[in-house]
Amino acid sequence: MTETSEPAPGVVAISGAGTGIGQVTARRFGELGWRVVIGGRRAEKLARTATLVEEAGGSCLAHDLDVTDAESVDRFFTAAEDKFGTVTAVINNAATGRFGPLEDFTPAEIDAEIATKLTGGLYMAQRGVRALRAAGSGGDILFMTSLSAAKEWLHHIPYAAANAGVEHAARMLRLELEGTGIRVTALRCGETIGTDFGTREGENGRGLAAYQLWFRRGLLRHAGMMTPDVVAGAIVAAVTLPAGYQYETLTVTPTAPAGELPVTFESWGADVFGRHG
User: Fold this and answer.
1) Residue 14 in contact with residue 37, Cβ under 8 Å?
2) How many CA atoms are closer than 13 Å to the CA of 27, on its beta-carbon side?
């Protein structure tokens, strides 16, 4: 019988760690005694995350990171290796998005969504794999993706397309790395409140029109929503899965609250606000 065990605390690198899911994930790894390397473009946000990690009992390095720039990614990993050694888990969390029909997007907005999620995720994975293979050790590459990668999530086309590309890349990378001990997971995330760009879209007015459309098309059927803490728990569970096993594409969605389902957008909004507002 093959013996399995949970991986010992290692070194985890998290992109987009200044807010939301990335921030809570960093804290959760800190609670488990991992050495945590956090990256992003807003120093003040990273500083807050580093404080949370250290208060939770972990060690943390905050470092500037632009995932769309391969040289920035390399500097980020080099700093992590200089302080903590080989990064054993890479969490590709960085993302940006806006809501609205494709015709309303500027070229820069399309480029940013695809570069941050898809190109940036590949740069991070590539650099992490090179280090793990040089060290001859196993590890984890985890890509955060979205339910929009698998469903026709209107008014979210560049973001959805980038996520679909990430999921296919993860499938192929998993096969490329068979026999190396490096696991590749795509964590497909459903409706979540408290993300950085989701909050922004709610504040700038585009969120309301998008939510109305999604409710009419049956994409939002109930008032269940996940929080960053729930999603962070799923990330940690995937990375700390006992050696010898892996999730491939793991979908995490909220369950419907007990009771009648909303039949109008107004009742849906009131239910969401009552539960999460």
Assistant:
1) yes
2) 20
Burial of 70 from C-beta contacts in 10 A (0-12 / 13-18 / 19+): middle
For residue 88, which of 123, 129, 122, 139 has the smallest C-alpha distance? 139
CB atoms within 10 A of CB 200: 15
Alpha carbon distances (Å) from 214 to 74, 166, 203, 208, 217: 39, 23, 18, 10, 5
Contact between 247 and 238 under an 8 Å Cβ cutoff? The reply is yes
Distance between CA atoms of residues 250 and 252, nearest Å? 7
Please name the amino acid found at residue 237: A
Q: Express each pLDDT in 178-230 by its tens digit.
A: 999 999 999 999 998 878 888 888 888 898 999 999 999 999 999 999 999 99
pTM value is 0.93
pLDDT in tens, 70-126: 999 999 999 999 999 999 999 999 999 999 999 999 999 999 999 999 999 999 999
Instruction: Indicate whether 54 pLDDT > 60.
Output: yes
Residue given tokens 């059927």 in the structure block: 221
Torsions phi, psi for 17 (to 5 deg): -95, 10
